[in-house]
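Journal club prep — side note

Before the paper discussion, L.F. wants everyone to see what a predicted structure for a comparable chain looks like in token form. Sequence:
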Amino acid sequence: MYHHGITYVLFFMLGLSGVACGQGLGGSPLDFYVGGSVGASVVNLDYDNGVEINGLGAIGGKVFGGLIVNKYIGIEGQYVRFGEAEIKSAGGSSDTDLTGWGFAATGNAPITERLTLVARAGFLDWESDEDDGTDLHVGGGFRFEAFDNFALRADWDFYPLNADGVDLNTHMVTIGGQFNF
């Protein structure tokens, strides 16, 4: 699975290098950023198949990087770790760790000079101990420009993952920071 994640990251970096030679759509230089955040992830599982998952409130997090093309449009790549969850079925129980690589387009809506509402939509190439796949990813949050080169973030992300017909609807709420270049 991770060979797909590496491919996506390489394409992302190639795209960054191509636009880095130019300027943003508004005629201003592009703003690059990297950061990380930590928080809680919640997995909602389809219980009709006799399987139970105990991953409520697992500690998860993400590292991310991207660019803001202009004050309204951006792109972002991320590595996400949802934390450990226990899966129980008639055959016993096991622990699983859910991780993934993602890429998303971002929409930015400035509220004030320092506060911006951010929306994301893209995909996540994910893997657990039992399964893997590539599914959609949507999210949103707020970015507060605390200093010229540092912003605080509060994010909510939704990953409607599908593993062999079982819906693993995963939510993650995180807080973190990003360094702007």
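L.F.'s comment for the group: The beta strands are 31-45, 52-54, 58-68, 73-89, 92-110, 115-127, 132-147, 150-163, 166-180. Keep this in mind when we get to the figures.
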